[in-house]
Amino acid sequence: MKGYLPYLLGALAGMLIAIFLSSLLTLTGTPQLVLFALLPVAGGAVADRAVRRRSGNS
Fold first, then answer.
1. For the whole prediction, is pTM greater than 0.85?
2. CB-based contacts of 33: which residues, under 8 Å, 6+ apart?
3. How far apart are CA 3 and CA 22, in angstroms?
């Protein structure tokens, strides 16, 4: 479970950014769905990659 922590934290950060942007831009419908689908996944991937690169575990 410890190995998934960077991904989960990045996904949480992506979700919070998606919520913020959605409320800021008052998005509804498909744009909101795309935002909530892509940002958590992208945030998790970026955070996981950064932690792996920093620790030297490619």
1. no
2. none
3. 30
Sequence-distant (≥ 6) Cβ neighbours of residue 24 within 8 angstroms: none
Distance CA 2, CA 58 (A): 17
What's the one-letter identity of residue 45?
Answer: A
| Strand residue runs (E) in 1-58 | none
Flag whether pLDDT at 8 surpasses 70: yes
Distance CA 26, CA 35 (A): 12
In one-letter notation, the amino acid at residue 37 is: A
- 31-49: pLDDT as tens digits: 999 999 999 999 999 999 9
